[in-house]
Amino acid sequence: MQDVMFLKNRVKEHVELVANHYTNHAVFYCGLYGSQNYGLNTDDSDVDTKCMVLPPFKDVVLGRKMVSTDLADPYGALCNVKDVRAMFDNFFKGNVNFVEVLYTDYFSVGVDYLKEAKELRDHRDMVANRDPLRLMEMAAGMARQKYVAFNKYFESKKEVLSQYGYDPKQLHHLVRLYYFMTEYLASADFGYALHPDEDVKEYLMSYKTNPLPFDEAEKHRERYMALVDGLLERAREFWGSLEERDLAAKRSKEVRAFLDDLAYRLLCKAYDVG
In angstroms, what CA-CA distances link 50 with 106, 149, 189, 235, 247? Predict the structure, then answer.
């Protein structure tokens, strides 16, 4: 069973995985992303994480390429490892899968960086909601990816495609993103939109636990993609005015300054300078 302790321990295991692989990088923050954050996990769900690391001083001075890779744990789950500067860029862009690690209950922080991690999480709403239209566009883009992946062949999906003719998980994600966008359009609150209510959870889980026949699934695929497109159009009407874009630009400057300053202070602490 994936209870709280199980999930927290898996996150800690990912921290150890990263520390052992990147011995000259300090781990700042590692957070879970995926179904567990929405209450939509099963006992078989992967425990995937995103981990921010601080590069060695020499890498920064020499302008070496920032770390950005995936590490697999013994159970087949992935830890997406990125230089803190690259991860902050993804936060700024409004990448939903990245931003959600600031809202997860399952995270681990390097002991030397507890203050900075708390500061980042305390400012997560400012970061996540800096540009609601941009966030909706990113979510719609993710939904489109799930739409395309619905019955696209991947070697790793060979068995499920043979059984159902499509990947139920991709349809599940498409529908989940529709509900996320619906709640975000109504609230402009990332944390609120991330957590579906119980009735919606039950409905979403049915796509994974009781997959639809292909013909019915195809109808759902088309319907929800059209609904996502409609939500995006409404978002553009709501947040696309010159006044709203000016406000978003102002918030964006504040968020960029906050993230840049926090990255600077993290690196100064890592190198014991400043």
Answer: 11, 22, 22, 29, 30
d(CA 35, CA 42): 8
Is 89 part of any domain?
A: yes
148 and 109 housed in the same domain? no
Distance CA 241, CA 234 (A): 12
Structural domains in the chain (count): 2
* Alpha-carbon span 130 to 102, nearest angstrom: 14
- Smallest CA-to-CA distance from 10 within 39, 34, 31, 37 is with 31
**Position 256 in a domain:** no
Angle of helix 84-93 relative to helix 242-271, nearest 10 degrees, comes to 170
Encoded amino acid at 85, one letter: R
Find, among 94, 74, 95, 91, the residue nearest to 28 by Cα. 91
Collapsed DSSP state (helix, strand, coil) of residue 258: helix
Nearest CA among 8, 9, 5, 3 for reference residue 106: 8
Proportion of the chain in helix, strand, coil states, percent, rounded to 5 = 65, 10, 25
pLDDT tens for 25-83 read: 999 999 999 999 999 999 999 999 999 999 999 999 999 999 999 999 999 999 999 99
One domain, residues 146 and 102: no
Q: Tell me whether residue 254 is in a domain.
A: no
Residues 12 and 110 in one domain: yes
Q: Helix, strand, or coil here: 30? A: strand
Q: Residue 32: give the domain boundaries.
A: 4-127
Residue range 84-91: mean pLDDT, rounded: 98
User: Same domain for 101 and 119?
Assistant: yes
